[in-house]
């Protein structure tokens, strides 16, 4: 394991997604694997940590995820903006029919997770391994998938002790997709202050 | 209406949330109203646009939302970081028992929506008025609420023609909560490029 990759305690795993980054969803089943971009993902619970993510019916990742019952949310960074755009704009199903997959097609390195069969993408800044929660109505009606996070890791250069700290690491800032390959990188930190109530001294 | 506030076409409404900002959820019912912060919200569909948001069982906003069948997602900005923190860290139910609400307690100005009874908070940079989709299992099991967006507006200084453009408006950047009143502001824009496939010329 690279020196900077660290396990994240499960009770802090929600903080990897709390600020709303675009994620890359990976899944694997019976020797096949895929990865896709998803801007529509969020935490759903603290402990045990849960997540929600929207996956269109047309996607190969969704088929692998439903078959395997697990998936990984990889959190990509500025360094990976072209990879993220390409993974969001290509069809794993078409590639699989041609006997290849997105990982080989784009020359992407992966590593094995701690709890899921799905591959984890090298170069991301966080990884959440998830067990699918069976909710067929949400799958069919809303393309909405819920999962329980069973293992989490992050790049300690930018996430440690439950906080992101991107200063000095602009290439490791998380990506936030707007539309059509246009992204915003996450910016500077600031702290909110509790305001006094009107009428209170 | 202030000169900078503009309606957003419904087919572009998802772009107001696509980059994962923290939102302020407002609801009103029979003369009572409340507003709370929620980091766990996301788009759920393009057209008709839908959203998902997580609301704890203890919240007064949730009670008003369930009673009225509608809610508003207000998107706050850096200028409002103290308001956002305060709205996320105070109880509307306690205030209502004391005969006040968060709007009066914090001196917050609101304006009427186009489609919902819930108040829209002045100073935010986007507003999505939503009709609650009745999904009792998601409400009870996951504190998860789905809504259809029936009207949307944005501050045209930072959102127009389906894109955010925050350059020169640092105080209007969206907020992305990490934990405990610690936020990240959204940063600079960048565009992803489609990579060639390995082996292709």
How many strands, what sense, and barrel or not for the largest sheet of chain A?
A: 8 strands, antiparallel
Task: Tally the beta strands of chain A.
Answer: 14
What is the fold named in CATH at topology level of chain A?
Pnp Oxidase, Chain A
Tertiary shape of chain A:
globular
Please state the average pLDDT score of chain A: 96
Cofactor (chains A, B): FMN
InterPro entries (chains A, B): Flavin_Rdtase-like_dom (IPR002563), Flavoredoxin (IPR052174), Split_barrel_FMN-bd (IPR012349)
Pfam family, one (chains A, B): Flavin_Reduct
Family (chains A, B): Belongs to the flavoredoxin family.
What layout of secondary structure does this protein have?
Two copies of one chain form a homodimer.
Chain A: E1 5-7, E2 23-29, E3 32-38, E4 41-45, E5 50-54, H1 60-68, E6 70-75, H2 81-88, H3 92-97, H4 102-105, E7 110-111, E8 120-121, E9 126-133, H5 136-142, E10 144-155, E11 159-160, E12 163-164, E13 175-179, E14 182-191
Antiparallel strand pairs in A: 1-10, 2-3, 2-6, 4-5, 5-10, 6-9, 7-8, 9-10, 11-12, 13-14
Explained architecture:
By secondary structure, the first copy, chain A, is of the alpha+beta class. Chain A has one domain (5-185): Electron Transport, Fmn-binding Protein, Chain A (Pnp Oxidase, Chain A), CATH 2.30.110.10. Chain A is 17% helix and 38% strand. Chain A is built from five helices and 14 strands. Chain A has helices at residues 60-68, 81-88, 92-97, 102-105, 136-142, and strands at residues 5-7, 23-29, 32-38, 41-45, 50-54, 70-75, 110-111, 120-121, 126-133, 144-155, 159-160, 163-164, 175-179, 182-191. In chain A, the strands form four sheets. In chain A, strands 1, 2, 3, 4, 5, 6, 9 and 10 form an eight-stranded antiparallel sheet that branches. Chain A has a two-stranded antiparallel sheet with strand order 7-8. In chain A, a hairpin with a 2-residue loop joins strand 11 and strand 12 (163-164). The longest helix of chain A has 9 residues, at 60-68. Chain A is globular, with a radius of gyration of 17 Å. The model of chain A has no long low-confidence stretch (mean pLDDT 96). The interface between A and B is large, with 61 and 61 residues. Strand 14 of chain A pairs antiparallel with strand 14 of chain B, so a sheet runs across the interface.
């Amino acid at each position: 394991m690279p020196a900077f990759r660290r396990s994240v305690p499960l009770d802090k795993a929600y903080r990897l997604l709390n600020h709303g980054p675009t994620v890359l969803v990976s899944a694997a089943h019976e020797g096949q694997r895929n990865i896709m971009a998803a801007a529509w993902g969020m935490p759903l619970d603290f402990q045990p940590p849960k997540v929600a993510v929207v996956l269109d019916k047309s996607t190969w990742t969704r088929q692998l995820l439903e078959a395997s019952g697990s998936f990984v949310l990889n959190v990509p960074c500025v360094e990976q903006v072209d990879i993220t755009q390409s993974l969001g704009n290509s069809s794993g199903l078409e590639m699989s029919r041609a006997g290849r997959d997105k990982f080989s097609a784009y020359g992407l390195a992966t590593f094995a997770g701690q709890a899921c069969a799905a591959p984890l993408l090298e170069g991301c800044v966080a990884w959440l391994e998830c067990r699918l929660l069976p909710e067929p109505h949400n799958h069919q009606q809303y393309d909405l998938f819920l999962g329980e996070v069973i293992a989490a890791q992050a790049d300690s250069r930018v996430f440690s002790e439950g906080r992101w700290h991107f200063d000095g690491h602009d290439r490791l800032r998380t990506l936030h997709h707007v539309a059509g390959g246009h992204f915003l990188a996450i910016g500077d930190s600031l702290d909110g202050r509790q305001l006094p109530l009107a009428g209170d001294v």
